[in-house]
Design a protein that fits this description.
By secondary structure, the protein is α/β, with parallel strands linked by helices. The chain has one domain: TIM Barrel (Alpha-Beta Barrel), CATH 3.20.20.70. It is built from 9 helices and 8 strands. The N terminus is likely disordered. It binds iron/sulfur cluster. The site of iron/sulfur cluster has 13 residues, from loops. Iron/sulfur cluster binds next to loops.
Length: 273
């Protein structure tokens, strides 16, 4: 995912959500939840980013996008130095931190690609009273998200680009799948933050920004826009993996440029942080 590692979701936006629970989630005792195995990239047991409040973060291995700005290209491969863990092992580990964390966030890679693993972990987390969240680009088969969303309290959704052709050029995948995922979150009334990637020269055309604003304003379950300015935190990984980093000449946006677009969105009536 394009990490929001430089900031946290402000308290004003999170307070209301902290206690929120997906009304579709049916509680299930742990002993009835099957143990399944998943491909895990890494774990961060205590973080204040990527979800509401203090989170236990699980990063999964495997992604079907190839975003040009990806900070974690080492998560792309399904078989790259993977750590296989079972859902019960994850829960045993989460249990150690349950007094300190408010919830679990599963990121990637793309968490929707391991539906049974994510779904079973989320069901067990609900048993522990923890909030569940996925950080996703919405790219998978609908049958995958049908398994996960009923047990998800919050989604961090990144629509990589509002323009279908630019989306395809930026990620290598069709935008229509992500739009279908967005529609499904709306139908199921799942609360979500929609991420806006600001990359100079890629996503700063005001015609595109206007389209993004129109879409965001028509969404009912969206809580706010999370504004993600371009950063270069993952560049060394691209180089170490021998891959060509196409955004080499893209400048880090200035505060003035960030504020300009952010304020444009805020003045249109959107909540942006
Ligand atoms: S969706 Fe995949 S390729 Fe895109 S930023 Fe996330 S991990 Fe990287």
């Amino acid at each position: 995912m394009f990490s929001s590692s430089l900031k946290t979701i402000p308290k004003t936006l999170t307070t209301k959500l902290n206690c929120q629970r997906n009304i579709n989630a049916i509680p299930m005792p742990s002993k009835y939840i099957k143990e399944v195995w998943g491909r895990v990239h890494s774990i961060d047991s205590f973080t204040a980013i990527d979800g509401d409040g203090i989170r236990y973060m699980l990063f999964l291995q495997g992604c079907n996008l190839k975003c040009k700005s990806c900070s974690n290209p080492d998560t792309w491969s399904y078989h790259n130095e993977i750590k296989n863990m079972s859902s019960k092992e994850v829960i045993k580990n989460v249990y150690k931190y349950q007094n300190y964390v408010e919830g679990i966030t599963i990121s990637g890679g793309e968490p929707l690609l391991q539906p049974e693993f994510v779904s079973n972990i989320f069901q067990e987390c609900h048993e522990l009273g923890l909030n569940t969240c996925i950080d996703t680009a919405g790219q998978s088969l609908p049958k995958n998200w049908d398994m996960i969303l009923p047990h998800t309290d919050l989604v961090l959704f990144c629509l990589k680009h509002i323009d279908p052709l630019k989306y395809y050029k930026f990620t290598g995948m069709p935008q229509i799948v992500a739009m279908k995922f967005l529609e499904t979150m709306e139908t199921m009334a799942i609360p979500y933050y929609m991420r806006y990637l600001y990359i100079p020269g890629y996503s700063d055309d005001y015609k595109d920004i206007d389209k993004f604003i129109d879409l965001a304003k028509s969404m009912k379950s969206m809580k706010a826009i999370e504004f993600l300015p371009y950063h270069r935190l993952g560049v060394d990984k691209w180089k170490n993996m021998g891959m060509n980093y196409e955004l080499e000449s893209v400048p880090i946006p200035s505060k003035k440029n960030i504020d300009e677009i952010k304020n444009y969105m805020i003045n249109s009536g959107l909540k942006v942080f």
